[in-house]
Amino acid sequence: MAVHQLSFLYQDLIESIIESLDKNDQETIRTKLLRHNPAELALVIEALPHDDRSKVWPLISTTVQGQVLHHLRDIARASLIDELEHDSLRSAGENMDVDELVEVIDDLPEKVAKAVIGSLDEEERRRFDTHFTYAKGTAGRLMQTEVRTLRPDVTLETALRYLRRFRLSTQTDSVIVVDRHNSYLGKLFFTALVTGHPKQRVDDVMDHEAEPILADTPIGDIARLFEQRDLVSVAIVNQANELLGRIAVSEVLDAIREEADRTLLNMAGLEEDEDLFAPILPSARRRAIWLGINLVTAFLASWVIGLFDATLEKIVALAVLMPIVASMGGITGSQTLTLAIRGLALGQISSSNSRWLLFKEIAIGGLNGVVWALVVAVIAVLWFGNVGIGVVICVALIINMIIAALSGIIIPLVLDKLGIDPALSGSVILTTVSDVVGFMAFLGLATAFLL
To answer: Which of 66, 76, 187, 423 could form a disulfide with 174 if both were Cys (CB 3.0 to 4.6 A apart)?
Structure first.
Protein backbone atom coordinates (compact mmCIF):
# COMPACT_ATOMS: atom_id res chain seq x y z
CA MET A 1 0.00 0.00 0.00
CA ALA A 2 2.82 2.37 0.88
CA VAL A 3 4.39 1.82 -2.55
CA HIS A 4 1.22 2.86 -4.35
CA GLN A 5 0.85 5.91 -2.11
CA LEU A 6 4.45 6.93 -2.88
CA SER A 7 3.80 6.53 -6.60
CA PHE A 8 0.72 8.74 -6.42
CA LEU A 9 2.71 11.30 -4.40
CA TYR A 10 5.25 11.72 -7.19
CA GLN A 11 2.57 11.75 -9.88
CA ASP A 12 0.72 14.52 -8.06
CA LEU A 13 3.94 16.47 -7.56
CA ILE A 14 4.94 16.21 -11.23
CA GLU A 15 1.45 17.17 -12.41
CA SER A 16 1.35 20.17 -10.06
CA ILE A 17 4.80 21.34 -11.22
CA ILE A 18 3.78 21.12 -14.90
CA GLU A 19 0.57 23.04 -14.13
CA SER A 20 2.55 25.70 -12.25
CA LEU A 21 4.97 25.99 -15.19
CA ASP A 22 2.05 26.63 -17.51
CA LYS A 23 0.95 29.43 -15.17
CA ASN A 24 4.54 30.64 -14.70
CA ASP A 25 4.04 30.27 -10.94
CA GLN A 26 7.67 29.86 -9.88
CA GLU A 27 7.14 30.46 -6.17
CA THR A 28 4.74 27.54 -5.89
CA ILE A 29 7.24 25.26 -7.61
CA ARG A 30 10.10 26.47 -5.40
CA THR A 31 8.03 25.81 -2.25
CA LYS A 32 7.09 22.30 -3.37
CA LEU A 33 10.67 21.40 -4.25
CA LEU A 34 11.97 22.46 -0.83
CA ARG A 35 10.03 19.58 0.73
CA HIS A 36 11.99 16.88 -1.09
CA ASN A 37 15.51 15.48 -0.82
CA PRO A 38 18.02 15.50 -3.73
CA ALA A 39 17.29 11.91 -4.84
CA GLU A 40 13.57 12.68 -5.03
CA LEU A 41 14.24 15.92 -6.90
CA ALA A 42 16.30 13.96 -9.44
CA LEU A 43 13.31 11.67 -10.06
CA VAL A 44 11.12 14.72 -10.58
CA ILE A 45 13.58 16.27 -13.05
CA GLU A 46 13.77 13.04 -15.06
CA ALA A 47 9.96 12.83 -15.22
CA LEU A 48 9.63 16.29 -16.77
CA PRO A 49 9.61 16.94 -20.53
CA HIS A 50 13.03 18.01 -21.77
CA ASP A 51 12.22 21.72 -22.22
CA ASP A 52 10.78 22.01 -18.69
CA ARG A 53 13.88 20.68 -16.94
CA SER A 54 15.98 23.79 -17.47
CA LYS A 55 13.04 25.91 -16.26
CA VAL A 56 12.73 23.99 -12.99
CA TRP A 57 16.47 23.75 -12.31
CA PRO A 58 16.97 27.38 -11.10
CA LEU A 59 14.09 26.88 -8.64
CA ILE A 60 15.99 24.11 -6.81
CA SER A 61 18.03 25.31 -3.84
CA THR A 62 21.63 25.94 -4.90
CA THR A 63 22.86 24.06 -1.84
CA VAL A 64 21.46 20.75 -3.18
CA GLN A 65 21.75 21.25 -6.94
CA GLY A 66 25.04 19.36 -7.00
CA GLN A 67 23.52 16.37 -5.21
CA VAL A 68 20.55 16.41 -7.60
CA LEU A 69 22.95 16.39 -10.54
CA HIS A 70 24.73 13.42 -8.98
CA HIS A 71 21.50 11.42 -8.61
CA LEU A 72 20.39 11.93 -12.22
CA ARG A 73 20.94 9.10 -14.68
CA ASP A 74 23.83 9.64 -17.08
CA ILE A 75 21.89 10.61 -20.20
CA ALA A 76 19.38 12.79 -18.32
CA ARG A 77 22.32 14.51 -16.58
CA ALA A 78 24.17 15.07 -19.85
CA SER A 79 21.03 16.45 -21.48
CA LEU A 80 20.44 18.90 -18.62
CA ILE A 81 24.10 19.98 -18.52
CA ASP A 82 23.88 20.93 -22.19
CA GLU A 83 21.11 23.39 -21.32
CA LEU A 84 22.67 25.03 -18.23
CA GLU A 85 24.97 28.02 -17.95
CA HIS A 86 28.55 27.35 -16.92
CA ASP A 87 28.20 29.48 -13.76
CA SER A 88 25.27 27.36 -12.59
CA LEU A 89 27.17 24.15 -13.25
CA ARG A 90 30.29 25.41 -11.49
CA SER A 91 28.24 26.35 -8.43
CA ALA A 92 26.60 22.91 -8.38
CA GLY A 93 29.94 21.17 -8.74
CA GLU A 94 31.54 23.14 -5.93
CA ASN A 95 28.70 22.11 -3.58
CA MET A 96 29.26 18.40 -4.21
CA ASP A 97 31.10 16.03 -1.96
CA VAL A 98 34.23 14.60 -3.60
CA ASP A 99 32.67 11.12 -3.84
CA GLU A 100 29.72 12.60 -5.75
CA LEU A 101 31.90 14.81 -7.93
CA VAL A 102 33.85 11.80 -9.17
CA GLU A 103 30.71 10.36 -10.81
CA VAL A 104 29.73 13.66 -12.46
CA ILE A 105 33.03 15.26 -13.49
CA ASP A 106 33.25 13.50 -16.88
CA ASP A 107 29.90 14.97 -17.93
CA LEU A 108 30.82 18.58 -17.12
CA PRO A 109 32.21 20.92 -19.81
CA GLU A 110 36.01 20.99 -19.71
CA LYS A 111 36.25 24.57 -18.43
CA VAL A 112 33.71 23.92 -15.70
CA ALA A 113 35.42 20.67 -14.68
CA LYS A 114 38.80 22.40 -14.37
CA ALA A 115 37.28 25.22 -12.30
CA VAL A 116 35.54 22.79 -9.94
CA ILE A 117 38.66 20.66 -9.50
CA GLY A 118 40.69 23.81 -8.91
CA SER A 119 38.36 24.80 -6.07
CA LEU A 120 39.16 21.62 -4.10
CA ASP A 121 41.44 21.94 -1.11
CA GLU A 122 44.54 19.76 -0.74
CA GLU A 123 42.79 16.93 1.13
CA GLU A 124 39.82 16.91 -1.24
CA ARG A 125 42.12 16.88 -4.27
CA ARG A 126 44.00 13.90 -2.81
CA ARG A 127 40.74 12.01 -2.37
CA PHE A 128 39.63 12.98 -5.87
CA ASP A 129 42.87 11.73 -7.41
CA THR A 130 42.58 8.48 -5.45
CA HIS A 131 39.23 7.76 -7.09
CA PHE A 132 40.57 8.38 -10.58
CA THR A 133 43.36 5.89 -10.08
CA TYR A 134 40.73 3.21 -10.70
CA ALA A 135 38.49 2.44 -13.67
CA LYS A 136 34.77 3.08 -13.84
CA GLY A 137 32.65 0.28 -12.46
CA THR A 138 35.17 -0.71 -9.80
CA ALA A 139 35.18 -0.37 -6.03
CA GLY A 140 37.88 2.32 -6.16
CA ARG A 141 35.70 4.63 -8.24
CA LEU A 142 32.56 4.00 -6.20
CA MET A 143 33.93 4.04 -2.62
CA GLN A 144 33.56 6.71 0.03
CA THR A 145 37.03 7.94 0.94
CA GLU A 146 36.07 9.88 4.06
CA VAL A 147 35.88 7.20 6.76
CA ARG A 148 36.44 7.08 10.52
CA THR A 149 39.00 4.63 11.80
CA LEU A 150 40.26 3.34 15.16
CA ARG A 151 43.56 1.95 16.40
CA PRO A 152 43.52 -1.53 17.96
CA ASP A 153 45.21 -0.49 21.20
CA VAL A 154 42.60 2.05 22.41
CA THR A 155 39.88 1.14 24.91
CA LEU A 156 36.21 0.94 24.03
CA GLU A 157 35.57 3.87 26.35
CA THR A 158 38.04 6.00 24.39
CA ALA A 159 36.59 4.76 21.08
CA LEU A 160 33.07 5.78 22.11
CA ARG A 161 34.23 9.20 23.23
CA TYR A 162 36.05 9.67 19.93
CA LEU A 163 33.11 8.58 17.75
CA ARG A 164 30.65 10.87 19.54
CA ARG A 165 32.50 13.80 18.00
CA PHE A 166 31.32 12.87 14.51
CA ARG A 167 28.09 12.43 12.66
CA LEU A 168 28.27 8.90 11.30
CA SER A 169 26.33 7.63 8.32
CA THR A 170 23.09 5.80 9.02
CA GLN A 171 24.52 2.94 6.94
CA THR A 172 27.46 2.45 9.27
CA ASP A 173 27.38 -0.81 11.19
CA SER A 174 31.03 -0.80 12.24
CA VAL A 175 34.24 1.18 12.44
CA ILE A 176 37.31 0.15 10.48
CA VAL A 177 40.41 -0.66 12.51
CA VAL A 178 43.87 0.19 11.13
CA ASP A 179 47.42 0.30 12.43
CA ARG A 180 49.60 3.40 12.52
CA HIS A 181 50.61 2.78 8.89
CA ASN A 182 46.93 2.78 7.81
CA SER A 183 47.02 -0.94 7.08
CA TYR A 184 43.67 -2.68 7.41
CA LEU A 185 43.27 -4.94 10.46
CA GLY A 186 39.53 -5.60 10.76
CA LYS A 187 36.24 -4.06 11.86
CA LEU A 188 34.78 -3.13 15.23
CA PHE A 189 31.04 -3.73 15.02
CA PHE A 190 28.83 -1.40 16.99
CA THR A 191 27.22 -4.33 18.83
CA ALA A 192 30.63 -5.25 20.27
CA LEU A 193 31.41 -1.60 20.97
CA VAL A 194 28.30 -0.93 23.07
CA THR A 195 28.13 -4.30 24.83
CA GLY A 196 31.82 -4.72 25.65
CA HIS A 197 33.42 -3.57 28.90
CA PRO A 198 34.62 0.08 28.64
CA LYS A 199 38.15 -0.94 29.69
CA GLN A 200 38.50 -3.63 27.04
CA ARG A 201 40.71 -2.81 24.09
CA VAL A 202 39.40 -2.60 20.55
CA ASP A 203 41.74 -5.44 19.59
CA ASP A 204 40.00 -7.74 22.11
CA VAL A 205 36.49 -7.44 20.65
CA MET A 206 37.00 -6.46 16.99
CA ASP A 207 36.32 -8.85 14.11
CA HIS A 208 39.69 -9.85 12.69
CA GLU A 209 38.02 -12.03 10.03
CA ALA A 210 36.06 -9.25 8.33
CA GLU A 211 37.72 -9.26 4.93
CA PRO A 212 38.21 -6.10 2.86
CA ILE A 213 37.80 -5.78 -0.93
CA LEU A 214 40.48 -4.74 -3.39
CA ALA A 215 39.85 -1.39 -5.04
CA ASP A 216 39.96 -2.83 -8.58
CA THR A 217 37.15 -5.32 -7.88
CA PRO A 218 34.22 -4.95 -10.35
CA ILE A 219 31.04 -3.64 -8.79
CA GLY A 220 29.12 -6.72 -9.98
CA ASP A 221 31.32 -8.96 -7.83
CA ILE A 222 30.83 -6.63 -4.87
CA ALA A 223 27.06 -6.75 -5.27
CA ARG A 224 27.11 -10.54 -5.15
CA LEU A 225 29.31 -10.44 -2.04
CA PHE A 226 26.88 -8.09 -0.26
CA GLU A 227 24.00 -10.39 -1.16
CA GLN A 228 25.74 -13.61 -0.10
CA ARG A 229 27.12 -12.28 3.18
CA ASP A 230 24.29 -9.87 4.06
CA LEU A 231 26.75 -6.96 4.42
CA VAL A 232 25.96 -3.36 5.32
CA SER A 233 29.38 -1.96 4.45
CA VAL A 234 32.83 -3.21 3.48
CA ALA A 235 36.34 -1.75 3.59
CA ILE A 236 38.26 -1.05 0.38
CA VAL A 237 42.03 -1.55 0.27
CA ASN A 238 44.84 -1.48 -2.29
CA GLN A 239 47.26 -4.28 -3.12
CA ALA A 240 49.42 -3.30 -0.13
CA ASN A 241 46.41 -3.71 2.22
CA GLU A 242 46.28 0.04 2.90
CA LEU A 243 42.81 1.37 3.67
CA LEU A 244 41.38 3.54 0.88
CA GLY A 245 37.70 3.86 1.85
CA ARG A 246 34.47 1.95 2.25
CA ILE A 247 31.39 1.02 0.26
CA ALA A 248 27.96 1.01 1.89
CA VAL A 249 24.92 -0.97 0.86
CA SER A 250 23.27 2.12 -0.70
CA GLU A 251 25.97 2.36 -3.38
CA VAL A 252 25.63 -1.37 -4.05
CA LEU A 253 21.84 -1.13 -4.35
CA ASP A 254 22.24 1.72 -6.84
CA ALA A 255 24.67 -0.42 -8.84
CA ILE A 256 22.30 -3.41 -8.78
CA ARG A 257 19.40 -1.23 -9.96
CA GLU A 258 21.49 0.27 -12.75
CA GLU A 259 22.64 -3.19 -13.84
CA ALA A 260 19.05 -4.46 -13.89
CA ASP A 261 17.92 -1.42 -15.90
CA ARG A 262 20.85 -1.84 -18.28
CA THR A 263 20.09 -5.52 -18.91
CA LEU A 264 16.38 -4.88 -19.47
CA LEU A 265 16.97 -2.01 -21.89
CA ASN A 266 19.81 -3.72 -23.73
CA MET A 267 17.62 -6.74 -24.44
CA ALA A 268 15.28 -4.32 -26.22
CA GLY A 269 18.18 -2.74 -28.12
CA LEU A 270 18.13 0.45 -26.04
CA GLU A 271 20.96 2.22 -24.26
CA GLU A 272 21.35 1.54 -20.55
CA ASP A 273 20.45 5.10 -19.56
CA GLU A 274 17.74 5.72 -22.16
CA ASP A 275 16.03 8.95 -21.16
CA LEU A 276 12.25 8.65 -21.42
CA PHE A 277 11.81 12.41 -21.92
CA ALA A 278 14.90 13.08 -24.04
CA PRO A 279 14.55 15.17 -27.25
CA ILE A 280 13.00 13.37 -30.21
CA LEU A 281 15.90 13.36 -32.68
CA PRO A 282 18.64 11.96 -30.36
CA SER A 283 16.25 9.26 -29.11
CA ALA A 284 15.23 8.33 -32.65
CA ARG A 285 18.90 8.18 -33.71
CA ARG A 286 19.84 5.83 -30.88
CA ARG A 287 16.95 3.47 -31.58
CA ALA A 288 17.40 3.56 -35.36
CA ILE A 289 20.65 1.61 -35.14
CA TRP A 290 19.04 -1.49 -33.68
CA LEU A 291 16.02 -1.16 -35.96
CA GLY A 292 18.48 -1.27 -38.86
CA ILE A 293 20.19 -4.36 -37.49
CA ASN A 294 16.82 -6.02 -36.97
CA LEU A 295 15.85 -5.14 -40.56
CA VAL A 296 18.93 -6.94 -41.89
CA THR A 297 18.02 -10.08 -39.94
CA ALA A 298 14.41 -9.83 -41.16
CA PHE A 299 15.62 -9.70 -44.77
CA LEU A 300 17.73 -12.80 -44.10
CA ALA A 301 14.65 -14.69 -42.89
CA SER A 302 12.68 -13.41 -45.90
CA TRP A 303 15.44 -14.59 -48.22
CA VAL A 304 15.16 -18.09 -46.77
CA ILE A 305 11.41 -18.05 -47.36
CA GLY A 306 12.00 -16.85 -50.91
CA LEU A 307 14.04 -19.96 -51.63
CA PHE A 308 10.84 -21.98 -51.30
CA ASP A 309 8.39 -19.72 -53.14
CA ALA A 310 7.43 -22.53 -55.50
CA THR A 311 6.54 -24.76 -52.57
CA LEU A 312 4.43 -22.03 -50.95
CA GLU A 313 2.54 -21.44 -54.22
CA LYS A 314 1.53 -25.10 -54.40
CA ILE A 315 0.78 -25.62 -50.69
CA VAL A 316 -0.74 -22.42 -49.32
CA ALA A 317 -1.30 -24.02 -45.90
CA LEU A 318 2.45 -23.80 -45.28
CA ALA A 319 2.29 -19.99 -45.27
CA VAL A 320 -0.40 -20.13 -42.59
CA LEU A 321 1.62 -22.44 -40.36
CA MET A 322 5.09 -20.89 -40.80
CA PRO A 323 4.74 -18.30 -37.99
CA ILE A 324 4.00 -21.10 -35.50
CA VAL A 325 7.35 -22.80 -36.16
CA ALA A 326 9.34 -19.56 -35.84
CA SER A 327 7.39 -18.38 -32.78
CA MET A 328 7.76 -21.61 -30.79
CA GLY A 329 11.48 -21.69 -31.51
CA GLY A 330 11.86 -18.03 -30.55
CA ILE A 331 10.10 -18.48 -27.21
CA THR A 332 12.11 -21.60 -26.39
CA GLY A 333 15.37 -19.83 -27.14
CA SER A 334 14.37 -16.66 -25.27
CA GLN A 335 13.64 -18.62 -22.10
CA THR A 336 17.06 -20.28 -22.24
CA LEU A 337 18.81 -17.03 -23.23
CA THR A 338 17.28 -15.13 -20.30
CA LEU A 339 18.34 -17.78 -17.79
CA ALA A 340 21.85 -17.93 -19.29
CA ILE A 341 22.30 -14.15 -19.13
CA ARG A 342 21.11 -14.16 -15.53
CA GLY A 343 23.50 -17.02 -14.71
CA LEU A 344 26.43 -15.17 -16.26
CA ALA A 345 25.54 -11.99 -14.38
CA LEU A 346 25.43 -13.89 -11.07
CA GLY A 347 28.66 -15.75 -11.81
CA GLN A 348 26.88 -19.12 -11.73
CA ILE A 349 28.05 -20.34 -15.15
CA SER A 350 31.65 -21.45 -15.70
CA SER A 351 33.57 -23.75 -18.03
CA SER A 352 33.14 -26.58 -15.52
CA ASN A 353 29.33 -26.61 -15.55
CA SER A 354 28.47 -25.13 -18.97
CA ARG A 355 28.57 -28.55 -20.69
CA TRP A 356 26.03 -30.00 -18.22
CA LEU A 357 23.84 -26.92 -18.65
CA LEU A 358 24.05 -27.29 -22.42
CA PHE A 359 22.81 -30.90 -22.32
CA LYS A 360 20.07 -29.95 -19.86
CA GLU A 361 18.67 -27.21 -22.10
CA ILE A 362 18.86 -29.44 -25.19
CA ALA A 363 16.91 -32.10 -23.29
CA ILE A 364 14.30 -29.56 -22.16
CA GLY A 365 14.00 -28.18 -25.68
CA GLY A 366 13.64 -31.67 -27.10
CA LEU A 367 11.06 -32.78 -24.52
CA ASN A 368 8.92 -29.67 -24.94
CA GLY A 369 9.46 -29.89 -28.69
CA VAL A 370 8.00 -33.40 -28.87
CA VAL A 371 5.00 -32.55 -26.66
CA TRP A 372 4.01 -29.34 -28.41
CA ALA A 373 4.93 -30.58 -31.87
CA LEU A 374 2.40 -33.40 -31.46
CA VAL A 375 -0.24 -30.92 -30.31
CA VAL A 376 0.39 -28.64 -33.30
CA ALA A 377 0.51 -31.61 -35.69
CA VAL A 378 -2.93 -32.84 -34.57
CA ILE A 379 -4.39 -29.33 -34.97
CA ALA A 380 -2.81 -28.97 -38.43
CA VAL A 381 -4.24 -32.33 -39.60
CA LEU A 382 -7.70 -31.43 -38.33
CA TRP A 383 -7.45 -27.95 -39.84
CA PHE A 384 -6.19 -28.82 -43.32
CA GLY A 385 -7.05 -32.53 -43.55
CA ASN A 386 -3.51 -33.39 -44.62
CA VAL A 387 -1.49 -35.88 -42.56
CA GLY A 388 1.70 -35.01 -44.44
CA ILE A 389 1.54 -31.37 -43.32
CA GLY A 390 1.04 -32.52 -39.74
CA VAL A 391 4.13 -34.75 -39.87
CA VAL A 392 6.26 -32.02 -41.48
CA ILE A 393 5.37 -29.34 -38.97
CA CYS A 394 5.86 -31.82 -36.11
CA VAL A 395 9.43 -32.63 -37.17
CA ALA A 396 10.23 -28.99 -37.98
CA LEU A 397 9.06 -27.84 -34.55
CA ILE A 398 11.19 -30.43 -32.76
CA ILE A 399 14.26 -29.43 -34.78
CA ASN A 400 13.73 -25.71 -34.28
CA MET A 401 13.03 -25.91 -30.55
CA ILE A 402 16.15 -28.03 -29.93
CA ILE A 403 18.34 -25.68 -32.00
CA ALA A 404 16.78 -22.65 -30.28
CA ALA A 405 17.50 -24.07 -26.82
CA LEU A 406 21.04 -24.88 -27.90
CA SER A 407 21.50 -21.35 -29.28
CA GLY A 408 20.07 -19.82 -26.10
CA ILE A 409 23.07 -21.25 -24.21
CA ILE A 410 25.82 -21.02 -26.81
CA ILE A 411 25.15 -17.43 -27.95
CA PRO A 412 25.56 -15.75 -24.51
CA LEU A 413 28.58 -17.93 -23.67
CA VAL A 414 30.34 -17.02 -26.91
CA LEU A 415 29.46 -13.32 -26.64
CA ASP A 416 30.69 -13.27 -23.05
CA LYS A 417 33.99 -14.85 -24.12
CA LEU A 418 34.34 -12.16 -26.81
CA GLY A 419 33.74 -9.42 -24.24
CA ILE A 420 30.35 -8.47 -25.74
CA ASP A 421 27.38 -7.97 -23.44
CA PRO A 422 24.96 -10.87 -24.22
CA ALA A 423 22.00 -8.74 -23.14
CA LEU A 424 22.78 -6.20 -25.85
CA SER A 425 22.93 -8.42 -28.93
CA GLY A 426 21.98 -11.93 -27.81
CA SER A 427 18.26 -11.58 -28.53
CA VAL A 428 18.86 -10.25 -32.07
CA ILE A 429 21.14 -13.18 -32.95
CA LEU A 430 18.78 -15.69 -31.34
CA THR A 431 15.77 -14.36 -33.28
CA THR A 432 17.70 -14.68 -36.51
CA VAL A 433 18.76 -18.25 -35.75
CA SER A 434 15.27 -19.42 -34.72
CA ASP A 435 13.61 -17.79 -37.76
CA VAL A 436 16.13 -19.06 -40.30
CA VAL A 437 16.31 -22.59 -38.87
CA GLY A 438 12.55 -22.78 -38.42
CA PHE A 439 11.71 -21.67 -41.93
CA MET A 440 14.48 -23.77 -43.47
CA ALA A 441 13.41 -26.91 -41.60
CA PHE A 442 9.67 -26.48 -42.23
CA LEU A 443 9.82 -25.45 -45.88
CA GLY A 444 12.73 -27.76 -46.67
CA LEU A 445 10.93 -30.80 -45.29
CA ALA A 446 7.75 -29.79 -47.08
CA THR A 447 9.62 -29.46 -50.38
CA ALA A 448 11.28 -32.84 -49.93
CA PHE A 449 8.26 -34.88 -48.83
CA LEU A 450 5.07 -33.10 -49.91
CA LEU A 451 5.83 -32.16 -53.52
So the answer is: 187
